[in-house]
C-alpha cells in the first residue's frame, strides 16, 4: 500500500503473480481496517489542501506526471505486462494512452468553469448571479486488472484536476502500476495527502470504503455484478460505473470483408479478449457469411500467442485459472446451443486459444453474458430490423460497430442500437481518451474522458447577488 508519499510495509502481504508463468513479480503490503481509517483521515486533510490549490498548479502537477510516465515508459510497460499478462506492445500502447490521459486531465483543470444565471425570465429583478463548479471531497477510484495504469489515470487525473483528494483501490492482482502512478504524482508535486493506494480484496477493503460516509464519489470500473453490489451499499454518493459488455459488430454484405476481418482480429483478441469493449458477437449478412468466415478464420488463425514479453507475441495469457475455466464453460455452452467450433475452444497452459464459434443460439452464454475471453461468436442475419433486435437483445450496451457503405443502413443502426457508442466502419474496441466513454443499461452510469469525468467529480455552487433597498 501507499500512504503519505511512500510505500508502507505490512505484516500481511500479497504476492503479485505473473499470469503467464505463475511466478511472483513483487510483494505489497495488504491494507487493513486501521489503514482505511488512516487513509480517510489523510484524504480529508488532502482535500482541504487541494481545493485551495489553484487550478493552474493542479494542471502543472498533472503535466509533470504525464512527463514522468513518458520518461519511464519501458519500466511502466514491463510492470503492466508482468502483472496483467498483456503483451509488451499492448502495455506500451497503454502507457502512451496514460501519458495523454494525464495531459487531458491537466487541460480539464484549466477549462473547468461555470456560467451566469438569469433571474429576469419571470419578470423584472435586480438579482444577478452565477454558478461555479467546486470539488466534491474524497474520490474513491476502484480500478480493474486489464488497464491497471490508464484506467487509473482516467479516475485519478480528473479527480485531482477538480481539487479532490483520492483513495485508489486497484485490482489486487495488478496493484503495482497504481502504486507507481501515485509515486509519480508525488514526485510531480502533488501534496502527500492528495493520494493513497490501499491494497486488498473488494469484498473486504473495497466494501468498507464504499460504505464510509467520508467518501463523496465512487468511480468504478469492473463487472456488472460488482457494480450492482456497490450501488446497493454505497448510500448517497455520486457514482460512475463503467461496467461490462458483450460488444457486437454488424457486417453488411457491401462491406470489405477482409478489412472487417482484420479489425475483428484486433478487436476480439487484444489482451486475450479481456477488454470490456472486446468484440464478442459478430452478426454478418447471410449472403456473405461463408466468405466472411473464411477471411476471419485466416486472420485469427495467424495470431501468435505465448510469452507476453516477446516482441512478436500478439496475444498473451488469461489473468488467472478462474478466467480460463469460465472461457471453457462458455465454449461448452455454445456447442450445446448448436454452435459450430471453427477455431480454438480450449486452453494451452495459461493461454486460451483464439476462438471462433459459428451459428450459436441467441440464448447461449457467449451471446447473453460477458465472456472476457478471446472468444468471438459469429451469427447471421437477413434484415436490418432483425440484426438491430439481436444486437439489443442483451442486458449490456457499451459500444457496437457497424460496417457498411450504405449511409441509410448506417444511420438506421446508429439510431436503433442501444449503446453508449455506435461506431460506423470502426470496431467497438476503438477508444480515444478524450471522448465521452460509457454505456447504457447494464454497461454503466456516467461517462469517462477527463472533460466529462471532471464534471461528475464536481458540483455546481450557485452565488446570487441582490441590491439592498435604499
Describe the protein.
Helix content is 40%, strand content 21%. The chain is built from 15 helices and 22 strands. Helix 6 (176-187) links the parallel strand 8 (165-169) and strand 9. With 470 residues, it is an alpha/beta fold. The protein has helices at 33-50, 55-71, 73-84, 88-111, 150-162, 176-187, 202-211, 224-233, 257-269, 289-300, 321-336, 365-368, 384-392, 407-416, 450-456; strands at residues 2-3, 6-7, 13-17, 24-29, 115-117, 128-135, 138-142, 165-169, 195-197, 215-221, 238-242, 248-251, 281-285, 340-343, 347-348, 351-352, 355-358, 375-381, 399-403, 421-424, 444-445, 458-465. It has a 7-stranded mixed β-sheet, sandwiched between helices. It has 2 domains: 2-243 and 443-463, Aldehyde Dehydrogenase, Chain A, domain 1; 248-433, Aldehyde Dehydrogenase, Chain A, domain 2. The chain is globular, with a radius of gyration of 23 Å.
Distance between the termini: 61 Å
The number of domains is 2
User: Which stretches of 5+ consecutive residues score pLDDT under 50?
Assistant: none
**CATH topology title of the largest domain:** Aldehyde Dehydrogenase, Chain A, domain 1
The average pLDDT value, as a whole number, equals: 97
- The 3D shape can be described as globular
**Major sheet characteristics:** 7 strands, mixed
Enumerate how many helices there are, as a single number: 15
CATH hierarchy class name of the largest domain: Alpha Beta
Helix content: 25-40%
Tally of strands: 22
CATH superfamily of the largest domain: Aldehyde Dehydrogenase, Chain A, domain 1
Q: So, CATH architecture of the largest domain?
A: 3-Layer(aba) Sandwich
**Which structural class should the secondary elements be placed in?**
alpha/beta
Radius of gyration: 23 Å
Bin the strand percentage: 15-25%
Amino acid at each position: 500500500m501507499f500512504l503519505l508519499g511512500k510505500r508502507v510495509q505490512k505484516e500481511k502481504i500479497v504476492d503479485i503473480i505473473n499470469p503467464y508463468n505463475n511466478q511472483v513479480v513483487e510483494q505489497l503490503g495488504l491494507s487493513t481496517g486501521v489503514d482505511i481509517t488512516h487513509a480517510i483521515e489523510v484524504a480529508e486533510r488532502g482535500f482541504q489542501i487541494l481545493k485551495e490549490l489553484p487550478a493552474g498548479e493542479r494542471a502543472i502537477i498533472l503535466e509533470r506526471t504525464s512527463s514522468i510516465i513518458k520518461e519511464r515508459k519501458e519500466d511502466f510497460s514491463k510492470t503492466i505486462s508482468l502483472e496483467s499478462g498483456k503483451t509488451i506492445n499492448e502495455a506500451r500502447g497503454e502507457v502512451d494512452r496514460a501519458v495523454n490521459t494525464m495531459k487531458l486531465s491537466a487541460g480539464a483543470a484549466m477549462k473547468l468553469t461555470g456560467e451566469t444565471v438569469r433571474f429576469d425570465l419571470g419578470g423584472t429583478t435586480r438579482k444577478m448571479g452565477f454558478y461555479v463548479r467546486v470539488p466534491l471531497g474524497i474520490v474513491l477510484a476502484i480500478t480493474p486488472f486489464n488497464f491497471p495504469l490508464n484506467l487509473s489515470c482516467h479516475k485519478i487525473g480528473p479527480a485531482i484536476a477538480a481539487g479532490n483528494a483520492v483513495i485508489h483501490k486497484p485490482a489486487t492482482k495488478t496493484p503495482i502500476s497504481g502504486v507507481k502512478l501515485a509515486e509519480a504524482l508525488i514526485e510531480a508535486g502533488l501534496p502527500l495527502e492528495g493520494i493513497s493506494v490501499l491494497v486488498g480484496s473488494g469484498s473486504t477493503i473495497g466494501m468498507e470504503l464504499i460504505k464510509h460516509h467520508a467518501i463523496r464519489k465512487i468511480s468504478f470500473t469492473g463487472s456488472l455484478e460488482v457494480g450492482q453490489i456497490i450501488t446497493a451499499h454505497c448510500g448517497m454518493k455520486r457514482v460512475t460505473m463503467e461496467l461490462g459488455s458483450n460488444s457486437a459488430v454488424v457486417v453488411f454484405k457491401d462491406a470489405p470483408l477482409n478489412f472487417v476481418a482484420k479489425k475483428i482480429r484486433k478487436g476480439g483478441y487484444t489482451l486475450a479478449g479481456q477488454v470490456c469493449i472486446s468484440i464478442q458477437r459478430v452478426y454478418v449478412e447471410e449472403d456473405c457469411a461463408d466468405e466472411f468466415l473464411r477471411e476471419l478464420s485466416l486472420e485469427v488463425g495467424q495470431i501468435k500467442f505465448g510469452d507476453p514479453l516477446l516482441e512478436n507475441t500478439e496475444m498473451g495469457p488469461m489473468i488467472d485459472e478462474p478466467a480460463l475455466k469460465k472461457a471453457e464453460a462458455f465454449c461448452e455452452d455454445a456447442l450445446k446451443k448448436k454452435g459450430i467450433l471453427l477455431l480454438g475452444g480450449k486452453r494451452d497452459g495459461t493461454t486460451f486459444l483464439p476462438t471462433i464459434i459459428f451459428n450459436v443460439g441467441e440464448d447461449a452464454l457467449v451471446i447473453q453474458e460477458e465472456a472476457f475471453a478471446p472468444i468471438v461468436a459469429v451469427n447471421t442475419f437477413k434484415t436490418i430490423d432483425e440484426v438491430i433486435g439481436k444486437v439489443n437483445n442483451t442486458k449490456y450496451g457499451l459500444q457496437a460497430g457497424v460496417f457498411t457503405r450504405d449511409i441509410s443502413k448506417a444511420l438506421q443502426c446508429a439510431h436503433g442500437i442501444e449503446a453508449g457508442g455506435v461506431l460506423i466502419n470502426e470496431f467497438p474496441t476503438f477508444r480515444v481518451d478524450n471522448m465521452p466513454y460509457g454505456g447504457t443499461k447494464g454497461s454503466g452510469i456516467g461517462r469517462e474522458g477527463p472533460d466529462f469525468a471532471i464534471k461528475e467529480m464536481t458540483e455546481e455552487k450557485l452565488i446570487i447577488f441582490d441590491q439592498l433597498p435604499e
